[in-house]
UniProtKB/TrEMBL annotation:
This is Zeta toxin. It comes from the Bacteria. PANTHER family: SLL8004 PROTEIN. InterPro entries: P-loop_NTPase.
Length: 68
């Protein structure tokens, strides 16, 4: 059965940094889905303008991963 780990916290708390170590090593998780990364891909110079679209893409990716 698929598992979903949610890492939350305030901006700048180190969620993304910790995720790259915590998820693969401690939780044996092979996928990391982050709306900020989607936003940077959509609008590299102003990712905040793509936050809603990035969140939608993130949800689509999570749904895809659960269906695999």
């Amino acid at each position: 059965m698929p598992r979903l780990y949610i890492i939350s916290g305030c901006n700048g708390a180190g969620k993304t940094t910790a995720s790259y170590t915590l998820l693969p090593e401690m939780l044996e998780c092979s996928q990391f889905v982050n709306s900020d990364e989607f936003a940077k891909g959509l609008a590299p110079f102003s990712p905040e303008k793509a936050s809603i679209q990035a969140s939608r893409l993130m949800i689509m990716k999570i749904r895809y991963l659960f269906r695999r």
